[in-house]
Design brief:
172 residues, four-stranded parallel beta sheet, 7 helices, disordered C terminus
Length: 172
């Protein structure tokens, strides 16, 4: 079925979407995914193609949507990165820091802070390093990043959705 007849559902953060997105795609961040909203957007469409940066969040979104009975879901293999690598066009906005990069900065800052406080203030602060390490290990095992979900909800990542062509602000 032709892609032009499909719903292109982008589940990245508003900041990522604003930086670069596929023309005609609709923003609906994974953190705010609403099956009812997606179902109404997909009415009359041949398919729903779920898009993210690399494919991981798209897979999570597709699984959640499928579990709620939404059919004919497809995932853009490799996400926006693969789209761009294939030389296909992207609509570009302001350059923003990726969510992945923000998570690495936050994790590094927390580990550094825990180590410094553990050395200079009290050895108990080393527990902060262990906590961050356990969180990173959990994220690697489950492919779910709690810190990423929190950072995705920060004000700089949640611009007014109407400013960047989002579908709606209703979430379930």
């Amino acid at each position: 079925m032709p892609v032009r007849d499909a719903l292109l559902l982008d589940v990245r953060t508003p900041a990522e979407y604003e930086e670069a997105h596929i023309a005609g795609s609709v923003l609906h961040p994974l953190s705010e995914l609403s099956t009812d909203a997606v179902r109404s957007l997909a009415e009359g469409k041949s398919a729903c193609v779920v898009i993210c940066r690399s494919g991981n969040r798209a897979r999570q979104a597709a699984e959640r949507l499928a579990a709620c009975g939404l059919g004919n879901l497809q995932i853009l293999d490799g996400g926006v990165l693969a789209w761009e690598a294939a030389g296909l066009p992207l609509n570009r906005g302001a350059k923003m820091m990726s969510l992945e990069r923000q998570v690495r900065i936050a994790a590094g800052a927390l580990v550094f802070t825990g180590a410094a406080l553990g050395f200079f203030v009290s050895p108990a602060w080393i527990g902060l390093c262990a906590f961050v390490g356990a969180g990173l290990m959990f994220a690697g095992i489950t492919d779910t990043c709690g810190m990423g979900m929190i950072i995705a909800r920060m004000p700089w990542n949640t611009r007014r959705r109407s400013e960047i062509g989002a579908c709606c602000s209703v979430s379930k």
